[in-house]
Amino acid sequence: MSGMRERHLDRWVDGYRRAWESNDPADIAALWTEDAAFYRRPDEEPVLGRDAIVNAWLEVADAPGETTFEYQVLGFGDGVGFVRGWTTYLTDPPAEFSNLWVIRLDRDGRAHEFTEWWMEAH
């Protein structure tokens, strides 16, 4: 696993979290290549293109401070990262979710494909 590419993955996840909290279109756009594909569920058609991804993100944006998130990199090679995440929505009562992300990064550390699986934790 290339250390430089591995750092790209950590930076990307940190940037994703920053965008998640800010809902700033520039923060969101910085994550993606212009022709990126975002699979919000693996069994649905992807959102295609950076501008469409920004718009889709903002349509379902969480409020800043509404969640906590922890993650673990499960593996990275050939530009593909696998991340396990734990999300808690600070609602009453709290809701917890388990996440699995598959992220394909370009040489600059931007995602050109992102697929997420999420399920409510019990």
UniProtKB/TrEMBL annotation:
Transmembrane segments: none annotated. Residues 14-111 form the SnoaL-like domain. SUPFAM superfamilies: NTF2-like (SSF54427). This is SnoaL-like domain-containing protein. It comes from Kribbella alba.
